[in-house]
Specification:
12% strand
């Protein structure tokens, strides 16, 4: 293994609650309707801008999108806490020489807000957002782009995510795919598509990766 590629929301950061707050605020403000967390999760796939354009009844999309980012930014620092275990994992992977990537359905703008708030800017070797692909997960386009930019083969990378779309995208890209349920909020309680491995504890992942690396030598 030469590269570790992560999904973001629910995998690297517990950002789902702030996403839900921002989306609920937009739908309430522009459509005057209450949407549930489950309804929002069902909309996931496209970036935030895509979700708003595809699901908002009010056609004033640009103002709605701006409100989403405003709410996302305003609530981020109070709701999304730094996770020391995640930070330690990323630091150790970097120290051990792994290339690191993010493949997320998030738009670049919201991801930049999160990375800045969490002190993770300039950490990853490649970032592919929902703005960078034509086809969102579960299509493998994003993962394939990341592999190409990292100059690694699909046999030299592992992809981690918290949703069925993540797992299916990883499978379709022919990378070793890991389901994670290690943050307080994640998308999939029970994976319909079976990952190669599932972790509910962050601290179990790195030792397993090291064992796999040793076996491959």
């Amino acid at each position: 293994m030469k590269a570790v590629i992560f999904d973001f929301d629910g995998t690297l950061a517990d950002t789902l609650p702030v996403c839900f707050i921002a989306f609920k605020g937009v739908f309430k403000e522009f459509d005057n309707r209450e949407v549930t967390t489950e309804e929002i999760i069902a909309m996931f796939g496209p970036s935030e801008t895509g979700i708003i354009r595809e699901n908002l009844r009010n056609s004033d999309y640009e103002k709605a999108i701006e409100l989403y980012y405003e709410k996302y930014n305003d609530h981020h620092r109070t709701i999304v806490q730094n996770n020391e275990e995640i930070n330690s994992l990323i630091h150790q992977l970097k120290t051990d020489g792994y290339k690191l990537g993010i493949v997320t359905g998030k738009a670049r703008r919201s991801l930049d807000i999160s990375l800045d708030c969490l002190g993770l800017k300039n950490v990853f070797d490649v970032i592919v957002t929902g703005d960078d692909v034509e086809f969102p997960k579960p299509h493998p386009e994003g993962i394939n782009k990341a592999l190409e930019q990292l100059s690694v083969s699909n046999k030299e990378a592992v992809f981690l995510g918290d949703s069925d779309a993540d797992i299916l995208a990883g499978k379709r890209a022919n990378v070793y795919t890991i389901g994670v349920q290690w943050l307080p909020n994640y998308q999939t309680m029970e994976f319909k598509v079976q990952p190669d491995e599932v972790y509910s504890n962050i601290n179990e992942f790195l030792p397993s990766l090291l064992v796999s690396k040793i076996k491959s030598i």
